[in-house]
What we know:
It contains 13 helices and 8 strands. It is an alpha+beta fold. It has an 8-stranded mixed beta sheet, with helices on both faces. Helix 8 packs parallel to helix 12 (273-287) and helix 12 packs across helix 13 (292-301).
Amino acid sequence: MTSLLSLGLTADQERLYRYLLRSPGSDADAAGAELLMPHVRAVAAELWTMGLVDESLTAVAPAIAVDLLVRHRLERTRRQLAGLTQAWDVLTELTEEHRSGRTVHRVEHLPDGPTAMRRVVAMLSDEPGELARVRDQPLDGGTRFAGLLARGLCSRTLVSAEVLDDPEQDRCARKWHVVGDLHRVTSERVGHLVLVNRAVAFVRADPADARGGVLQIRQHGVVALLADAFDGMWSRARELDDRPLAPIERRVLTALTHHDTDEAAARSLAISVRKFRGHVADLMARAGVSTRFQVALVAKQRGWL
């Protein structure tokens, strides 16, 4: 006979449930006498708590009973996994304490950004899994970051459109995008956020003041919420080439299509020829083309003009 023990019932609970299925309308005393179960009322109360019998000791249909037992078992498994996750967090902290020789806290205040970045690099050096960042200021990853990308680091960076209005920052973002640090542009209000392997988060202690230091957060629930928020922003963000042109970029494109020489185009914008040519070079890089004729063509195709 197939047993319900694997679904979490005790032997007495299963005996009483099967008896009540076979003998609808029986009372607790009759069931206890026939099953030689002196504590039958306690067992019946347990079945009622689980939803397997009603107040009159009528057993629910087997299909309903099995469904309830499976749900109970899944919930117990979920709680057990949650406990294992907490145990893993503790193990991670102990390992970090052993490696660094310092106490690790769930929320730790770090004095500045460079200290936080050293922590990030150290964590990723041990396990180059996943890096997610939201930034509202210029950032260049450096050679160590390039080495992590070469080792297989999966990196995504969200950056505000205002940062990329600076041509130098736009070039920097594109450089890292090409080598594997995927960039997208967001028009949402952003602060500074770094997520390492979806297990540790770094945020500014004072969002309004970068000098206030950085909070390192290891609390699982908080980090999970921040990771979900990042994923939502990433899905809503635009690709680098899809963001609107800045007003000066639109004016440069218009001048490029209406004047035969750089000197005339620069004069129409009241800027120097050198600055005009710099804007044109940035637009060519953004469009991924090598000639001015091509940048004008791509601009029309993408609706930039």
